[in-house]
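Can you give me the bound-state structure? Components:
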Amino acid sequence: MKHILLFITLLIGSFSFAYAQEDEADPVKREQKIQALYVAYITQQLNLTPAEAEKFWPLHKQFDSELKSSVDINKPELDKQQAVLDIKKKYQDKFSKILGNNRTDDFFRKDMEFRKKLVDRLRKLRQQNNSNQRPPRRNN
Amino acid sequence: MNISNPIQNELLELNSMLAGIPNINVYTVPDGYFDALLNDVLDAVTDKNLTKVTNNDLPAGYFEGLADNIMSRIKKEEDFGISEDSELLSFTRGINVYSVPEDYFNGLAENILLRTRLEENESSLLSAAHGINVYTVPMGYFDGLPNEILKKIPQPAKVVEMKRSFSVFRYAVAAVITGIIGLSVISVLNKRNIIQENLSTGTEMSMAKNIIKTNSFEQVLSTISDVDLVNYLEKSGEDVDAALVASVSDDRNLPDEVEYLTDDKTLDNLLNGLNLDRSHNN
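Here's the bound-state model for the whole set.
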């Protein structure tokens, strides 16, 4: 009886574990796509060589995770912006060692441009959706 | 059938004449008795010549009152004790024929004691034996008796106290084992996470290389849904609504100045088109 119970517990445990793994698959994949777009965009815009890319992207990953972990919606707006700025300044020197000052500057600019592209894309999508849903205007 | 020897021997000792009688079955059955038995019985049963007791031979209502009849007869006999016909004995009904001499019970106890003493005194044999203790006890019996008794009592088993286990130690061991298991699970999960992260980074890199190679940035961008875009931007701390409104100013398709004058709702329609998140209203 004891053994049966143990076996059942392990079975259920393993299922839940597997289930947890399953759940992540799709949204993660979609996020990966956007991240891949970002990598492609930055690589192209900065003309990163393979050697530079090998050093740059691991450092960028650290930079990215620090930025994400600093996201706190309860903070006042300026504090939020200051926190982001502090992290960017912190990594500016590190990026400069790989890319040089000018290209580091470029990087921060291209980073913002990429986000702008995403926002533009989002805006167009929403406008499109609205125009598909909205009934035709009546001219009075 | 041979009688077993011990029994035969015993019988010889008891009565040699009996033992001499051979063990023969002296009873006989007529020849062919059993062969014809079945048919004889059946014939007898079905024999119409045999007198049958019919209900006509019995007086009417015989069985109905039979039980009561029997009970009343029994009761009568109980009451009288003897047959009604006996005149001799009838006068003895209910008379106690036994008698006790006068003052019998009054002096009974003393009588008995007297008689006992008399008999004791009369019996010379007994008087000789009077007061003599005929029982003997072996020499030194009582001297060694306590020891003998004690020897016979079984020794109680030696009590070896079990070492009381120090329960805190057990709990400590359990905690350590749980800790080890927990740490190993965490480290395995961490390793898994790291492997997954590395895998995902690898995936992203290879996807990026593919995008660069095929120059399909815009194409891939067009396949991403608005929900995923919002999630990505919010994760990196972007205020999506503010960014959306800001992005409108760059849009070449802004309404004309005239439209703002002719239609009050121009601005509303423009902002509605952005599907801003209304829950941000303060």
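A couple of observations. The mean pLDDT of chain B is 81. The first helix of chain B runs from residue 5 to 14.
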